[in-house]
Automatic annotation (TrEMBL):
InterPro entries: TPR-like_helical_dom_sf (IPR011990). SUPFAM superfamilies: TPR-like. It comes from Bosea caraganae. This is Tetratricopeptide repeat protein.
Length: 607
């Protein structure tokens, strides 16, 4: 069969044509100056002048501002970029569904992104045969009507669990529109959009355990100076975007002309009484040295105060981004990351036994760093049921990939089982990527699976992409830092881990495990033992393993015997597979020998 060279479907001409079709379509509802905004950034990008795509250049060349333009005092570019992102997300979710080349404006800058969606209507015959399908995974009994969860409920600032299995009255026409799933990336990266509430909600089952709604009130300026006023306005875009980057939350924010009380009233009237609703309020002030934000988390129904804190951002230390972005990330991290305010309340609300859906995914994320065999089996069954019932639930596929990778690691003693689990992990990660390619959780699942396959280039690319998508989530940095340590990139891994730990709103003991191992590696047994005593992880086999090795090196026979006893209760006869397990994790041989030496001295037979 001959091979015919095909033109690049994302070449410059194709991108320009996509721009012209978009701007000519009356369904793309934006102001004339935002059409000029989009044309400017696309044409500059395609001309190789991306370095000119800055807020100052856009303000002067597109919006007619003077040469003295100051983005801190005049947020016009940020505000209009937010409106443009909203319009793009809405267009591609509705009238523009059939468009194969989609234009986005990723959060964090103004350089456009282009995405190729779907396949040509009439593919050429002169192409390679398709690759064999991935290993079979649970399939639904029938085609689901569900609007793809990762499409962010078109034209909304929303992230959350997918809808249950019956169609909403006003979304029935969207049944089978698989192309919407590809919008996930553009919608996620365009989250900094005000004037948006949940316009097309899914009607849930009365008894369903659903993801919570997080209402974001407009930030209030505590003083009337220009800098504080500007910060409150720009934070109104940055904060909903930062919180919405965390999976499992449905985030809604008021329109610029909408009172907060109107947002609250409309949301409460629209949602079932069983759904948990939170309200976030912020007040800000700018002084000579930096910005201070006071945030509060309240019960959205009763207005009862659940949590509050103050966040300071120093102008001198903030060298990597805008003050409002750094402030928003700090607040989002304190609210939505692992062990933070919202996640703590959500975990308390999960019923037992864990039902499929959002509850299952949320519980999986809590356990993923330290799974017992029983938990792994329980969560695998729960997640498999979830994706069978709701095949467009990208987060469930991503967590299922994690579970399968963990199974592949722990079943190294049965190679065929380990290999089959890794194949299932690949298929689950691929499904998550097809549904939500720009989800941080998806990219982390891809990274974890690639690491286990020893596709190290893809592991690092996807891991760093996950962090770029959600820089507010320290968990993503911890995972990357841990993998770098296993690869022997010790200094780099320690820097990543310590930075992530410092940014945690609440300590997570397992963050420290590889720091303990690094102290052991360097012969600092006293330091390793001191940190292990401080960061207790009684259910984690790697914790008792390193404690046993430390005591072996220091000659503490009593401590070594106790650690080995506890290790054996978690991983029976681990010495028989210790070397194979470490190699399966990619750990350098020299470090394997160093740990094995301590274990032998502790009294463990290591093969």
């Amino acid at each position: 069969m001959s091979m015919t060279a095909k033109p690049d479907p994302l070449d410059k001409d194709a991108k320009l044509a996509a721009l012209e079709r978009l701007l000519a379509d009356s369904a793309f509802r934006v102001s004339q100056r935002n059409r000029s905004f989009l044309r400017f950034v696309v044409e500059e990008s395609l001309a190789g002048r991306s370095d000119r795509i800055k807020a100052y250049t856009i303000a002067v060349d597109v919006f007619g501002r003077g040469a003295d333009f100051d983005g801190m005092l005049d947020p016009v570019v940020r505000i209009e970029a937010g409106r443009l992102r909203q319009a793009l997300a809405k267009y591609y979710a509705e009238e523009g569904q059939s468009e194969r080349i989609r234009i986005g404006l990723p959060r964090g800058g103004y350089t456009p992104a282009f995405e190729l969606v779907g396949e040509p209507e009439c593919p050429s015959r002169d192409v390679e045969a398709p690759a064999p399908p991935p290993p079979a995974l649970p399939e639904p009994a029938a085609v689901s009507w569900a609007f793809p969860q990762s499409a962010m409920r078109a034209a909304t600032i929303a992230r959350g669990a997918p809808a249950p299995a019956r169609p909403p009255r006003f979304l029935a026409k969207a049944a089978g529109s698989w192309r919407i799933a590809a919008l996930a990336g553009l919608a996620l990266l365009g989250l900094a959009t005000l004037g948006t509430v949940v316009a097309k909600r899914i009607i849930p089952d009365e008894d369903a355990f659903q993801s919570p709604i997080v209402m974001i009130a407009r930030p209030q300026a505590l003083t009337g100076d220009a800098q504080t006023t500007a910060l409150s306005r720009t934070l109104a875009q940055s904060l909903p975007a930062a919180i919405a980057r965390f999976e499992g939350l449905t985030v809604v924010a008021a329109r610029p002309d909408q009172p907060d009380q109107d947002l609250i009233t409309n949301t409460l009237q629209r949602e079932l009484a069983s759904r948990r609703i939170y309200l976030v309020t912020t007040s800000v002030k700018v002084d000579g040295g930096g910005a201070r934000a006071l945030w509060q988390l309240m019960d959205g129904r009763t207005q009862a105060l659940l949590w509050s804190a103050t966040m300071d951002t120093s102008f001198a230390q903030n060298t990597t981004g805008a003050v409002e972005d750094e402030t928003a990330q700090k607040i989002a991290r304190a609210l939505a990351s692992q062990g933070a305010a919202i996640s703590s309340f959500e975990l308390r609300a999960i019923p037992d036994p864990i039902p499929p859906g959002y509850a299952c995914v949320t519980r999986s994320r809590q356990y993923i760093a330290n799974l017992t065999d029983a938990q792994r089996k329980l969560l695998a069954e729960c997640l498999e049921t979830t994706v069978a019932q709701t095949p467009e639930y990208a987060e469930a596929w991503a967590m299922l990939a994690y579970i399968y990778v963990d199974e592949s690691r722990v079943r190294i003693d049965v190679p065929e089982v380990s290999k089959a689990a890794l194949a299932k992990a690949e298929a689950a990660a691929a499904r998550a990527e097809a549904l939500a390619p720009f989800s941080a959780l998806t990219q982390q699942a891809i990274s974890t699976t690639a690491y286990q396959k020893r596709d190290l280039a893809r592991f690092e690319t996807a891991g760093r992409r996950a962090i770029a998508i959600n820089p507010s989530d320290p968990n993503l940095q911890v995972i990357l830092g841990n993998r770098l340590f296993l690869l022997g990139r010790y200094d780099e891994s320690m820097a990543v881990l310590k930075q992530a730990i410092a940014s945690r709103p609440a300590p997570v003991a397992t963050d420290n495990v590889n720091i303990i191992y690094d102290l052991y590696r360097r012969g600092d047994y006293a330091g390793a033992l001191a940190l292990a005593d401080k960061a207790k992880m009684p259910g984690y086999f790697a914790y008792w393993l390193v404690i046993a090795a430390i005591h072996g090196q220091t000659g503490n026979t009593e401590g070594a015997a106790d650690a080995l006893k506890r290790l054996n209760a978690i991983r029976t006869n681990y010495g028989a597979v210790m070397r194979a397990d470490f190699r399966n994790r990619g750990i350098p041989e020299a470090f394997i020998d160093q740990v094995a030496d301590g274990l032998r001295k502790a009294g463990m037979p290591v093969e």
